[in-house]
Amino acid sequence: SCLIESGTLEAVNVIGGAAPYQYSIDGGLTFSSDPVFTGLDPGTYNLVIQDAMGEILESTEFIVPAPELAINLAAQASLLLGESTQLEVQLNLLPSQIDSIIWTPATGLSCTDCLNPIAMPTQTTEYTVTVIDIYGCEAEARVLVVVDPSPAIYIPNAFSPNGDGINDIFLIYARDGSVERIRKFQVFDRWGELVFEYENFDPNNPAYGWDGYFRGELMNPAVFAYYAIVDFINGQQMLYEGDITLVR
After folding, report:
1. pTM for the full model?
2. Are the C-beta atoms of 60 and 47 separated by less than 8 Å?
3. In this predicted model, what pLDDT tens digit does every residue of 144-159 receive, in sequence order?
4. What domains can you pick out in the chain, each with its CATH number?
């Protein structure tokens, strides 16, 4: 069983032999005149009683049960899509007393056999951690990681490609880690002519944005229409349409 943190062994009512007696709990390697042994770690002990003549009167095995294994783990954590959190487990054990750690499910976890994994699920997930100590005791705990799937996309409504280094590129912004890819990004002039297109790229990168040029020439100030298809890490796909104003 897993009941106590330390144990006590006491030899009482010794029958036979000649007093005084000597007592050992390590199988007779070392002896003591005190019949009481306290503060014993969990495990198996071989109690040996020896009389004054050196004769062994008794040899018996005793088991000191291990402490009850307890896990302290927050019941819930909340994330935005693309964010991560560390699942922090506290145990009433030393690291050397841990035999195994198992997290399930593995989806979204940085590791499944460590104490404090990083969780980055793409949807609300309940994780279970099971810990087994070296004494065979087992305990488990659960944490619900709630994921807010609301897309975090920002598309500006104006840009100024004038070379001043400020807002020179029209691009799509997204919360880090939330977007799998931008499947398609197109810009049209007011007559419906395609003036810019890029496919299958990451957000937040000016290299994949529109610099205001078409066929080698900077476009005049005007209102353009954009069209974008975005794939999120949770499998969701969304269409974005709107206007972008080019100013000088």
Report:
1. 0.62
2. yes
3. 999 998 878 999 999 9
4. 7-64 (2.60.40), 71-148 (2.60.40.10), 153-246 (2.60.40)
